Structures are given as structure tokens and as C-alpha cells.
């Protein structure tokens, strides 16, 4: 485990509101409920509904399908809907990934969807998150602004404008993401926003082919946006696989997330096997450590564990996966991620 802990690692697919430590969320929930506060989020959830969702979180992930998992978020949003609570939650997420003797990762591209609440505009939301990122500096963390598939054009425009504006101010907004309910939205209306993001120098990462129900035509449409990275890419057909191989697009792999959301039945069936066989760039990521109760160290441990529990990778293979192939959409590859072989790695231990 020490080897994994000291391996320089980048976490490139972590959703802020899916990564809040449970203790912090519980504190926020206790304060929220005891204050007798009315529903404060745009979701308009009642305290009872929030409490029910909290109980589900505390009972452990009963995530039979990917759709169950999405029902947790409205409650979490209610708890992070003031600037103070959002700052506390963000600070805890950053600390979870970046603090301590052996931080989970040496570089983090954290992503979040700007939300409008009674006390925050979307711009304020992003500024609050960036205020916390500033404690670490651009060599350690960047922000990816998520665009949710359920967003209408007004909100998409607002989010993109906020991302461009803050990047223009020199803030570490490194890119935009497409996320949210995998079956929602018409991707044709998103194209111009992603094109505009690219023209503004923002990186683009897209959740793609996440469920078996995502049509092949949509996958091709999303690939035509020329993304820098792909989230999941679980159900690519042969045509899409060929395109992804030609474009050499880095795929963000979230093993535990896929297993618990049951989009992949076993590690043996996981699409990582295809990308490993093809020597295709991948980045090992956590997705949402809160409901999936995982960590980046845990995800790497799955790579090293012997089959059938894991992939039985050697230390050298792990270094290759961890540091050689990843593609940042943020700044240049920080030098601490340039480690190429075990000897260099051992020098650091
Ligand atoms: P946030 O953007 O609010 O910080 O993080 C939570 C949001 O990320 C969720 O509401 C959802 O839109 C998105 N999200 C988290 N995990 C996944 C995932 O595995 N797939 C997709 N498509 N979206 C996700």
C-alpha cells in the first residue's frame, strides 16, 4: 500500500458534491435540520426528504442501478446551498484528496456543476469553490466546470460565460465537462457550447456511452466535439472504439463506480481490459467517493490485487498507468507526474 500511496497520481474525474466526506455531510445535515430551515435549494426538497436521503447515504450505498445514485444528489445540494456550507464542503473534499503525509493524489482536476440557490448566483458558486482551490495552487488543483445534460440553453450559456470569465481573470478553471443523468438532454444543443469552450482555451471532457441505453448515434455526436478526455466510455461500439483509438483520447476509468452502478458486472468484463490491451491512455479515477466509499488509493489497489479481485499489475505497470498516459486538460503536466520508472519512483519513497 505504501507504494501506491507514494506513487504520484492525478485524480481527473471527481465530482465535488459526490466527494464530500460523510462526517462533514452529517454535520451539515444536523445543522440544517436543527435550524428548522425551510428548503433552501432550487430543488425545493422538504426536510423530511433530505433526512430520508441522508439515511440512505448513512445506511450504505444501496445502488442497484445508476438512477438510484442520482437520487442522492438533491439532498446533498440542499446541504451545500449557502456559500459557507459550500466552502466547508469544498475544503473538506480538497483536504481528503490533497492533505496528509500521503495525499491521495498529487494533482486534482475537481469538477462541479454551478448551481443557483437562494443565497448564491452560479458565478458566486464557482467563486466560492475557487476560493478554496486557491489554498493549494495551480500545480496541485484545477477546476472543471460541469454542464449538466438537463440544463437548458440559458443555464448552459450562463455556466460557460462564468467559466470563460473566471479563466480570463486568471483563475484555474481548466475545462468543462458534460455530466448528469446519462439519458437526459439532446446533445445537438450542447455542441456550440463545447466548441466555444475549446475556442476559449478550455479543455473538454465528456461523460459518454455510460449506459447500455445511450444510442450509438449520440456517442458519435459527442465524439465529434473533439473532447480531450472521456468519462467512463463503457459502451462504445466498434466504430466509436476505432475513432477513440485514432484520436487517442484519454479515458477516465472509475472501476468501483461502474461496478456499484452495475454498468459493468465484474472487473473481468470491465472496459479497462480493452484499453489496457490496446495500450490506450487511461486515467484511474474515483468519480464519487462518498456513495462509492472508495479512494484513489483503493482504485489503484484494485489494479494490483491478484485476479479475480483485481488485475494483478506489477509496480512498473502501475507507474505506467498512473503517470505516463494521462492527459491533463489543465496546465502542463506538473513535473511530479513525470515519473517514468520504478527506480525514479523508489528514489522518492
Ligand atoms: P456536482 O457537479 O454537484 O459537484 O457533483 C454531483 C453531480 O455530478 C451529480 O448531480 C451528477 O450530475 C454528476 N455526476 C456524478 N457522478 C456522475 C456519474 O457517474 N455520471 C454522470 N453522468 N454524472 C455524474
Automatic annotation (TrEMBL):
> Coiled-coil intervals in this record?
none
The terms under GO molecular function for this entry are: adenosine deaminase activity; metal ion binding
- Gene assigned in the entry: adal
Occurrences of domain Adenosine deaminase (ranges) = 8-314
Q: What is this protein called?
A: Adenosine deaminase-like protein
The reaction(s) annotated as catalysed by this protein in its Swiss-Prot or TrEMBL entry are:
N(6)-methyl-AMP + H2O + H(+) = IMP + methylamine
What residues of the intact protein does this structure contain?
Answer: 19 to 367 of 672
BP terms from Gene Ontology: adenosine catabolic process; inosine biosynthetic process; nucleotide metabolic process
> Which coenzyme or cofactor does it need?
Zn(2+)
Does the record bear Endoplasmic reticulum in its keywords?
no
Family the entry assigns: Belongs to the metallo-dependent hydrolases superfamily. Adenosine and AMP deaminases family.
What keywords is this UniProt entry annotated with?
Answer: Hydrolase, Metal-binding, Nucleotide metabolism, Zinc
